[in-house]
Amino acid sequence: MLFNSMGFLIFFPIVVLVYFIIPRRIRNLWLLAASYYFYMCWNAKYALLLLTSTVITYLSGILIERAGERTVYKKWVAAGSFVLNLGILFWYKYVNFMLELLGQLFGAVHIELQVPAFDILLPVGISFYIFQALSYTMDVYRREIYAEKNFLRYALFVSFFPQLVAGPIERSKNLLKQLSEEKKFDYDRVREGLLLMLWGYFLKMVIADRCAVLVNTVYGDYASYHGFQLILANVLFAFQIYGDFMGYSVIAKGAAKVLGYELMENFSQPYFAETVRDFWRRWHISLSSWLRDYLYIPLGGSRKTKGIKYRNVLVTFLASGLWHGASITFVFWGALHGLYQIIGELMEPAVSRFCQSFHVNTGNISWKCLRILKTFFLVDIAWIFFRADTLTAAVQILRQSFDLSNTGLLLNNGLYELGLNERNMSILLLAMLILAVYSVLKERKVNVIEQLSRQNAVFRYAVYWGIVLLITFSLDITGQEFIYFQF
What we know:
By secondary structure, the protein is mostly helical. Helix content is 68%, strand content 0%.
């Protein structure tokens, strides 16, 4: 069931209405049933995988807590939980990729190997809910939380429908605790949640899906395009994936808020980042913090030598790339981000000396803008490898992007031949301007919804209905799945 589907627009009000009518003691049971129904709308049989992961991590939490000071026993239980869950993830997401890679490696040394290919359908959201369940195992192991004894409550934590299939990857210290608290209907909270959902739909349907039309046109026949055509497609993909993924996260946060729950922020103006390291503090925060806490730090983090630190950075970002998909393009994308950070740190002394020698005012807005543009350029280069189907295609797209012989497109109607007509291009530009204003306000720590609620009713409702109107104008080009559903 897609957030941007008629089915969800019927499903969600029913869930909310019943939730606040029924007695408190059965509300979690109702949400659990609704969450499993929501997931089963894609493929009912894969709900068994969700249940399996839930049972494994639930039992592991109890066994770890009962182990007390028996450290070796606790390690074996935690390791068992990880092996079983990651084994499920490997089979459904990576087995064919690894077998294909193995066949290519043997082929490179002229050894013929018959590699089987399994007909496996990737369960939607499997990477998200398995990582969320595994974080619970580690939190209990580290004694950061107590093991949850109520199975239904824990099962709801793993399967909570607003963030089940595309995050954010919630922590037990946040969401699981909230599931034991009484939730009362609160008009202001519900209104804020609905406004968040409206903003999420704007990001997805007005910006992301409109960008997707042009991006898909160009990437679908990339050999026929070059220069500004590819540059535009590359830049718009950066905003497509941002609007798409942030849109889902905001809708999820809004839906949860309507029900009385607070999900973590998953984005914090990532394209205002001044370094690639800063970008990852702002982009997909739930995954980057998960990898930091459960992979990078256990590997040693930055506590040892520079060499080991850089190794840990590279391993973490290779894992990030592989988490996103079973393809060498995703692995390369992750490795590129890891190398960006390593090279950036190595260059810091030289940059500092340059600034001192030429008396560069690093506190000036122009220097800050230059750093933001540099970071966006590096991130956008990496997005090419994320979006392209193969490494060969990505390299060709990158090479053709520097062929600027078609500058005349900017002076005629050539841009309107890339999938978006003049009307849709104008709507996209207006939407991007709205996003820019919103992002600047958020960067300055302004609560946009709260400030908007303080304005007079005429202005307030003009904004609300203006966004609704833009969404309505987008109904003819929307309906696409969220990009991160495939992960």
